[in-house]
Q: What sequence folds into this?
């Protein structure tokens, strides 16, 4: 096991982070002054309107974008170094399974690239497919599965090499609400079982409040954090917690934060 | 049956139009002959004559079929130089000439596909090649192949290469292009998210190529290969025109020298049948590969 420290230690730490894209219309400030500390085992949601930089921040953590100012550490090292050490698994909005590979073959992809042995590949594929409730579907091709099942397979793919951090960029954004509710519930179970640190980008206030221990509210132009809410909800969350007074109070604060950031002005 | 019916309908329509055209185009000769002999011809006489001329402007379908049969089965089984009596293919038969063309096509197609594939890989992975190779590849296809074919043959002959190689080079010249264009498109077909995913695994460019780009490009490769193999056949035939050492191209040109229209059409049909077989076999490989990839639904 890699040592990423005891609970309470920062897994992701950003200090005054900024990212400016140079475009033909002049510089675009995708992120400014982002300071955030994510601890081991946290479930952190990033919520805000389009252009607020929530996806950009996640991509910085994954070393898919590189900040132009400030510091960012993942597991106490640079994002690039952390990626080399397989610090995180990334789940994109589209499942992006290879149509020419079976579900098991898709989950195996990172394992092949990272050079796991054949026997270990097989074992890990079996384990993670069970974890996302897809045991028995390994031999199917993606087109034989529903959208929700495909997204579960892509989560299994991100979990296969046992990274401690799971970064999810609107993973359920393309799914209908019924499927989304179920996957949210399953994601919470999975989080409880594995103890991963999860960074989760979403557009949906109920989704953010239901899932998170920490909600980061962001606003655009320039992309910045307007509020960080530590959720008072317990870690074990049945679906009907969404009708409780605490839930509604947190949701209200998120909405206020979004409004304060002028996110809904246009 | 419901697939066969439309095909047969179209074939029947083409044959009918062909017969009408045969009568119409050959009638002038028939009338001239009759005038010289001072004979009056009924319409029935004209039809009978136009469909059975020795050197028609347009041979009738049954004449072409008869010529095809004569120059394949009959020549090989009963001819003095046929394979039955001499042990080797007759140099008069279309089996012999078709084989010459086919072998040059196959060699040229293999070279062209290989070259096109390598160029596409280079173009996708190397910015200098991306900027420099494509314009030349496009320019190469704007030169009429009929103009450049004799030069290729002369240049290669001066370094001692004759026979199948010059023809194969011309085939390759025509067939590499669709493969380059298709493969560049195919290798670039994966979406940004797909490439980002591989970056999150710290995958190398080689791994991205073998695991993502190449499998994603296969449908494009096969589409290009179908165009390429037909172009390769055209190239081989064009390469046979100036040399006159056998092959369907040589038969086409000889036929037009001596006004043997039935011979031309028989050679043309042999080429068309070859093209259909070649494209069909690429399609068969395509189906087999895509089925193995789980893409056949």
A:
């Amino acid at each position: 096991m890699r040592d990423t420290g005891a609970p309470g230690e920062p897994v992701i730490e950003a200090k005054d982070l900024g990212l400016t894209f140079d475009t033909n219309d002049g510089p675009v400030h995708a992120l400014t002054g982002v300071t955030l500390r994510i601890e081991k085992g946290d479930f952190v949601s990033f919520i805000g309107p389009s252009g607020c930089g929530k996806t950009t921040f996640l991509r910085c953590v994954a070393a898919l974008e590189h900040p132009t100012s400030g510091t960012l550490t993942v597991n106490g090292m640079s994002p690039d170094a952390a990626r080399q050490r397989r610090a995180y698994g990334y789940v994109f909005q589209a499942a992006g399974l290879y149509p020419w590979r079976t579900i098991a073959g898709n989950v195996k992809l990172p394992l092949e690239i990272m050079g796991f042995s054949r026997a270990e590949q097989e074992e890990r594929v079996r384990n993670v497919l069970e974890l996302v409730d897809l045991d028995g579907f390994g031999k199917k091709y993606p087109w034989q599965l529903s959208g929700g099942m495909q997204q579960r397979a892509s989560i299994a793919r991100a979990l296969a090499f046992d990274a401690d951090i799971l970064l999810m960029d609107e993973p359920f954004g393309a799914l209908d609400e019924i499927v989304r509710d179920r996957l949210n519930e399953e994601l919470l179970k999975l989080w409880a079982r594995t103890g991963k640190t999860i960074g989760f980008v979403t557009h949906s206030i109920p989704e953010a409040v239901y899932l998170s221990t920490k909600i980061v509210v962001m606003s655009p132009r320039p992309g910045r954090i307007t509020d960080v809410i530590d959720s008072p909800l317990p870690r074990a969350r049945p679906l009907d917690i969404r009708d409780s007074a605490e839930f509604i109070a947190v949701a209200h604060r998120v909405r206020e934060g979004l409004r304060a950031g002028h996110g809904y002005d246009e | 049956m419901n697939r066969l019916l439309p095909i047969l309908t179209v074939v029947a329509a083409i044959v009918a139009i062909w017969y009408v055209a045969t009568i119409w185009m050959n009638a002038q000769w028939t009338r001239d002959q009759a005038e010289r002999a001072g004979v009056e011809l009924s319409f029935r006489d004209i039809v009978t004559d136009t469909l059975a001329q020795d050197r028609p402007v347009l041979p009738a379908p049954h004449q072409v079929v008869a010529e095809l049969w004569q120059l394949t089965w009959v020549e090989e089984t009963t001819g003095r130089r046929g394979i039955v009596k001499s042990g080797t293919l007759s140099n008069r038969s279309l089996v012999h000439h078709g084989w010459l063309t086919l072998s040059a096509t196959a060699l040229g197609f293999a070279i062209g596909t290989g070259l096109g594939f390598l160029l596409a890989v280079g173009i996708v992975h190397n910015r200098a090649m991306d900027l420099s190779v494509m314009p030349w590849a496009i320019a190469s296809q704007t030169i009429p192949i009929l103009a450049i074919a004799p030069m290729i043959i002369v240049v290669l002959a001066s370094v001692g290469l004759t026979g199948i190689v010059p023809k194969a080079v011309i085939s390759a010249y025509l067939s590499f292009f669709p493969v380059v264009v298709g493969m560049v498109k195919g290798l670039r077909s994966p979406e940004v998210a797909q490439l980002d995913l591989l970056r999150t695994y710290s995958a190398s460019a080689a791994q991205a190529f073998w695991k993502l780009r190449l499998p994603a490009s296969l449908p494009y490769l096969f589409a290009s290969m179908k165009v390429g193999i037909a172009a390769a056949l055209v190239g081989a035939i064009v390469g046979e025109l100036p040399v006159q050492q056998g092959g369907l191209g040589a038969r086409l040109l000889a036929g037009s020298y001596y006004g043997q229209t039935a011979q031309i059409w028989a050679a043309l049909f042999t080429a068309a049948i070859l093209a259909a077989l070649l494209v069909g076999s690429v399609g068969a490989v395509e189906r087999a590969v895509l089925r193995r990839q789980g893409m056949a639904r």
